[in-house]
Amino acid sequence: MRIVVGQGSCGIATGAKKVANRFEEILGEKNIDINVDITGCIGTCFLEPIVDIYEDAKDEPTRYVKVKPEDVVEIIESHIEGGKAVESKEISEENKKLMEKQKRIVLRNCGCINPEEIDEYIARDGYKATKKVLTSMTDEEVIDVIKISGLRGRGGAGFPTWFKWNAARQNKAEQKYIVCNADEGDPGAFMDRAVLEGDPHSLLEGMTIGGYAMGANEGVIYVRAEYPLAIKRLKIAIAQAKERGYLGKNIFGSGFDFDIRIKEGAGAFVCGEETALIASLEGERGMPRLKPPFPAQKGYWQKPTNINNVETYANVAWIILNGGETFGSLGTKTSNGTKVFALAGKIKKCGLIEVPIGLSLREVIYDIGGGSKEDKEFKAVQMGGPSGGCIPASLIDTPVDYENINKTGAIVGSGGMIVMDETTCMVDMARYFLDFTRKESCGKCNYCRIGTKRMLEILERITNGEGKDGDLELLEELAYKVKDGAMCGLGQTAPNPVITTLKYFRHEYEDHIYNKRCTAKACKSLISYDIVEDSCRGCGACKRKCPVSAISAVSAIRSTTVTTSWSISAPTLLTVPNCRRKPGGVISPRCRPAGRFPKRGSCAIPTTQSITS
Q1: In this predicted model, what pLDDT tens digit does every residue of 356-396 receive, in sequence order?
Q2: Confidence bin at 554 (pLDDT 50/70/90)
Q3: Does the pLDDT at position 480 exceed 90?
Q4: For 489-568, where are the alpha helices, taking DSSP H only?
């Protein structure tokens, strides 16, 4: 028997380390010799902390979810000592079914192995693909398998992987480089981080195979410094692979030398663009370069270079072992295989999923994600992060593949899906993403540096209730000029959230400008509060309790508005000399029936009952 506690970043953030420490403490007190191991992100982040207990004769574990340190004693006494599972903490049948529509290739080992133990990776066919490639395949044969698989880059653009590899292979040079872009910067995206934390050897193996295919003997993993756990586990994995001979000189006696090092990035979003990433690797400021020449021709230190992201490389070993045809049979004709998505935002079951490409948005959001939180009306989903766009509820049956998502104005991107419901203001959402890209712009080209700033100024004016006639036309004109004129992918895609929200939610923009109203009640400058005459007892409780002194006077107030500047507009005070509660005061006699007055102040009505928006 063994106990495994999920310790990806999501698990640790919810207290997994405290749970693991508590297990070790209680097991030690009871002299029970059972190991407490770790694993990476299992995918069901909304159920963390997660504890799996494996029986000696069972492959499938008993899974406990949302485990707290105070639950540990009961689990040990009931399950480990008594042989009876604690049903109240077990994963539900409904949540078990989340895996039914998933097909795990990239995430095949996440949540199953200890990422800090190479033997557990080897036990699940780890490095078999490397041995097969180095001992029985030519570089051309490897590229042919990747071509047959139809694997496309999973970092955003979806460019055919085999084509990039082959371009680097055909450019002859004494030194070539293979680079992994692990600089995952999209808000709400955490796919690559989960692989780095939960299965780092799959990345190392994929890069080794790619290096062999294109003739590179040095690999670099460019990972953001904000991922300390991922970096720690990558370093452990690289050291273990070198110790076992899977990295270094003459791997598997093939004569092929290959090594990998880590470069920690400063977290610049623009370094997701490959030429900006290369500039950062070379010690320069991360700014894009004109293409051509492409990195496959002149990349890192002007040598042929290939760049893919973590998810792309994590597919490679599986494809080599199972065949390109097997991978190609998944998904659609033009978008093969599976895709990892990070479900975030206003969705019930947030976390990581991996599904065959081609499932509809409805299946992903409702069948796997459980739908909108609190069963509120689903409004839209943002795909592709700040570079993507909003897909409205009317298009929820759109298949999730590169071509169909592009038709909506969004992009698949690296795999972030941010769900929005009726309480999300689409104008404010566009403002948020544009504010992000404006800050992350490197400033090299005018369209991106100045254009995004001017667009943001218009959006800020609209959300502050200061929009004017002509703003939408100007915003749209600027959006397309920036999209067409920017130098790199960041600037070219920065207007996408604005363009798609204008296309599908123009009425919300018009409401903000012409009616000075935010229907989602998210823009504070467009919210006002009325004290309802029929509900006001005139007791003064709201004035006394208001934390920002928004109410300057009160008594049977008629049609009084508390504006967003937190002041009373034209209060009407009614003096009531015969009020039995406060004779001669300004309190309404309706506060309590005669003869039933409680102690002073105890008739206070919560402000939320007397003030409606």
Answers
A1: 999 999 999 999 999 999 999 999 999 998 989 999 999 99
A2: low
A3: yes
A4: 489-493, 496-504, 506-514, 541-545
Phi/psi region, residue 556 (left: phi>0; alpha: psi -120 to 50; beta: rest), is left
- 8 A C-beta contact, residue 556 and residue 533: yes
Least confident of 401-415, 492-506, 560-574, 580-594: 560-574
Average pLDDT (119-132) is 97
285 burial class (0-12, 13-18, 19+ CB within 10 angstroms)? Answer: middle
DSSP-based three-state secondary structure for 560: strand
**The model's pTM:** 0.86
C-alpha–C-alpha distance, residues 40 and 113, integer Å: 8
CA torsion angle 257 166 416 93 (round to 10): -70
Count how many residues are written for the chain: 613
Query: How many other C-beta atoms are found inside a 10 Å radius of the C-beta of residue 246?
Result: 24
> Rounded to whole angstroms, how far apart are CA atoms 385 and 436?
10
- Check residue 59 and report its DSSP letter: S
DSSP state of 351: E
Strand positions, DSSP E, 218-328: 218-224, 259-265, 305-309
CA angle 290, 292, 294 (to 5 degrees): 100
User: Which one, of 36, 19, 199, lies nearest residue 111 by Cα?
Assistant: 199
Residues 203, 209, 215, 217: what is their CA dihedral angle, to the nearest 10 degrees? 50
List the beta strands (DSSP E) in 449-577: 529-531, 560-562, 568-569
Q: How far apart, in whole angstroms, are the C-alpha atoms of residue 537 and residue 482?
A: 56
Distance, CA of 518 to CA of 13 (rounded, Å):
34
Contacts of 575 (CB under 8 A, 6+ apart): 555, 584, 585, 586
Residue 515 burial by CB count (10 A; 0-12/13-18/19+): exposed, middle or buried?
exposed
CA distance 568 to 564: 10
Cis? peptide before 292, omega within 30° of 0: yes
SS3 507: helix
List the structure tokens of 359.
């499932």
Say how far apart CA 406 and CA 424 lie, in whole Å.
23
* Gap between the Cα atoms of 172 and 303, Å rounded: 9
